Amino acid sequence: MFIMLINFEGIIMKEISISLCMIVKNEENTIARCLDSVKDIVDEIVIVDTGSTDRTKEIVGGYTDKIYDFTWIDDFSAARNYAFSLASTDYILWLDADDVILEPDRLKFLDLKKTLDPLMDAVNMPYLLAFDQHGNVTFSLRRNRLVKRSRNFQWIGAVHEYLAVGGHILNSDISVVHKEEARDSDRNLNIYERRLAGGEEFTPRDFYYFANELFEHQQFERAIEFYEKFLNTDMGWVEDRIAACAKLADCFHRLGDPKSEHAFLYRSFEYDTPRAEFCCRLGHSCLQAGRLKQAVFWYKLATELEKPVDSWGHMYHACWTWLPHLQLCVCYDRLGEHELAYKHNEIARTFQPENVSVIHNKIYLEGVLGKEVKEEKNS
């Protein structure tokens, strides 16, 4: 059964059907939350279990009878490709068990289901990974989430796998929210270590993600080694190269080597125009060192950059909005330019009206400026 719709040009449109394909293991704390958020969006739910020992399969049974077992072989792509092979609808949606689609995005998704051009091969969506205390998004990236089944797109990579897609791709504003739960933090690192010990030849992408795992485990010297191996291949996604520069700067900062830290911040400019995240980091370094004019330069540059609308890379939203203005307030205050300090604090306040530092600066600077006005009148 399908629903036929007529668009405004009089062209007959078919509402697409969607299979949700997931791989799970011991997700009893999150799987119901995830499935509740999408159960009325999808037409089929396919769950591949890789070895649960808790109530995951029992809970999933309340949503679907399409539950399959997959023997775990240290390969996420193999499991995901198996799940995709079991789908039977027009399009495939993938999620992890700790992902949810919130109500406003659920409604947009239902609308997309009715209006998606069948020529579209994939739909990518923002992936919201972190929020501040006021619910504002602080960290996000994008993922291809909905793909045409007939294209037989494949997952690639044993760990930190990616879905290789091509053709007509729609940039959607429908967001998926990640609500991370505690899990085995050593799992991915151990998979890489076993692959390395077995003599497997790593791809540039493997170097990058292995380095990320080493960094997360505070093995900074080894992380540096593999980030540099990644960059030295002169291959890989440009966003990963930029992110590797940021991580290398982090490593050298942790190891107390500011010269190397700054070198990799600057190296990021080789791959693209300056990003606000790097400008803010350079501004912070100058501010800490008392080089206020250089700090102003970098923070001002961050405020002048155009925030990417559909960026696929890691985006720390504060650096593209309120943070450089707040830091410019600090710089200008120390330089004695209180009107400029107040101006930038007010801009920061448009983004962060409840920020304690912003409120404090406003009260402080209004007091300073009021005093200066009185002194001018009395002079």
TrEMBL record:
Coiled coil: none annotated. It comes from Desulfocucumis palustris. Keywords: Transferase. Residues 19-104 form the Glycosyltransferase 2-like domain. One of its GO terms (molecular function) is transferase activity. The keyword Transferase applies. Pfam families: Glycos_transf_2, TPR_8. The lineage of its organism: Bacteria, Bacillati, Bacillota, Clostridia, Eubacteriales. InterPro entries: Glyco_trans_2-like, Nucleotide-diphossugar_trans, TPR-like_helical_dom_sf, TPR_rpt. The keyword Repeat does not apply. This is Glycosyl transferase. It comes from the Bacteria. SMART domains: TPR.
